[in-house]
Amino acid sequence: MNAIDTNIWIYSHDDRDLHKQLVAQQLIASVRPLALPWQVGCEFIAASRKLAALGFDEAKAWLALAKMQAMADAILLPTPPLWAETQALQRRHALSFWDALLAAICIQGGVQVLYSEDMGAPRALDSLSVVNPFPTAP
Question: Is this structure's pTM higher than 0.85?
Fold first, then answer.
């Protein structure tokens, strides 16, 4: 199972960086099976506001979220035990709360690869590999 972090979903709709947009769109079109963490859907709606000036309004954001849901083989929902795992990951890997929460739900949901340019990618967080799809030139 794979998951895609919020930033990549946002880049897929942001034409200010055409390279990142193309990489994001290609990744989204090709990565399967795909899990959609609840947190990513929530963050997507919140973060999409910064695209309003580009014509990506609230209605388009909600439509995009519906498409994200339709692509997903699984929606990963939070449960109360997730907080303890979040705390443990935060301590073991020096993550922010939100990054640890995302990693925890991915691990809980059987995700092996999380695509993100955050969390110090590339890196391993227990059984989860975090991969940056935007490699920098040497």
Answer: yes
- CA–CA distances in Å: residue 15 to residues 12, 56, 65, 99, 105: 8, 11, 18, 26, 30
State the amino acid at position 96 in one-letter form: S
Domains in the chain, ordered, with CATH? 2-131 (3.40.50.1010)
Residue of 5, 34, 24 whose CA lies nearest to 98: 5
pLDDT in tens, 94-118: 999 999 999 999 999 999 999 999 8
Per DSSP, 120 falls in state T
| C-alpha span between 84 and 123 (Å, rounded) | 22
Cα dihedral 8, 71, 57, 48 in deg (nearest 10): -30
